Amino acid sequence: MSGHYLEFKNVSKSFGDNSVLKDVSFFVDQGETAVIMGRSGVGKSVALKLLLGFLEPDEGRIVVAGQDVTGFNETQFAAIRRRVTMVFQSGALFDSLTVAENVAFPLVGRSGAGSPEEIDRRVTELLDMLEVTEFADHLPADLSTGTKRAVAIARALAEEPEAILYDEPTTMVDPLMAGHISDLILKLKKTLRKTSIVVTHDTHLGKKLADRAIFLQEGRVSFFGTWKELEASQDPFLRNFLLQDELIPALDATA
Asked: Are the C-beta atoms of 48 and 167 separated by less than 8 Å?
C-alpha cells in the first residue's frame, strides 16, 4: 500500500528506439486534481495508459488506488478500472447505442447496479449533471465532438469511480465548448471531490483545475508542484510555454 492514491516511481517507457518517458516520478493524493502538461509527444497520454494497465512500464513502479499495480495481470487491472476510469480523447462511445444507452452500459448486468428503474434514474441524473439531457435519444454520430466528451464523462461517472483520468478533454472543440467542458470538470471537482488527472496542453484549463501541476519536457518531469509555483518558475521553457498559451486568446480576439 502507498500513502498516495496515484503515483509514478521512477517510471520509464520506450517504444522501440523512442524513449517516451524517462525516470518519471509524481504523485496525486485522494481528492486532488493533477494536471499533466507539455508539448505534443512528450508522453502525457502514455502516462494515463500506464496507470490503467493498457501499457506496461519498462522500469519503475506504479501505484493506483493506493496499491502497487506493477506487474498486475488483466484480471487484476479489470478490478482497478472499476475504481479508476478514463475519459478518452475520442470519447470511445458505442456507435450503435443512444446517449442514454451508452451512459447505462457500465451498469446493465452489473451486480448491485439496481433495478432497470434505478438504472434509468441514475442515467437521468448523470445526463442532467453533464447538461446533455436533450441528447438522450441521439446516436453518437449525431453529436458534436464536445457533446461526445460530455457524454463520455457521464458514462465514466456511472459506476461511481473513486478517480477519473481525462485525456485532452478540450482538444479539437471550439472555444465555447472547451470552456463549457472545463466548467463541467470544475463542477465535478467541487461537488464530487473525485481524485483526477487531466492531461492537457491548455494552460487556462490547467490553472482552473490543478491542485498539482506536472510538466513533462522531453520525457522527463521538469516541474512538479502547485500552479502558483509553476507561474512563479523562472525556467525559460516553462515561462515561454505559459506565455504563448496566454497569447492565443488575444490573437483569436483580433482575428
From this structure: yes
The domain 6-228 having CATH identifier 3.40.50.300: the answer here is yes
Q: What is the pLDDT of residues 142-193, one digit of tens each?
A: 998 888 988 999 999 998 899 999 999 888 878 887 888 888 888 888 888 8
Residue 228 C-beta-side C-alpha neighbours within 13 Å: 1
Q: What residues have CB less than 8 Å from 105, skipping those under 6 apart?
A: 94, 97, 155, 158
pLDDT digits (tens, 9 = 90+) for 108-126: 866 666 788 889 999 999 9
Other C-beta atoms closer than 10 Å to the C-beta of 243 total: 10
Q: pLDDT tens digit string along 9-43?
A: 999 999 999 999 999 999 999 999 999 998 888 89
In sequence order, the β-bridge partners of residue 86 are 165
Domain ranges of the chain: 6-228
CA angle, residues 248, 250, 254, in degrees to nearest 5? 115
Closest-CA residue to 93 (of 106, 79, 80, 77): 106
The pTM score is 0.86
Cβ–Cβ under 8 Å, residues 35 and 206:
yes
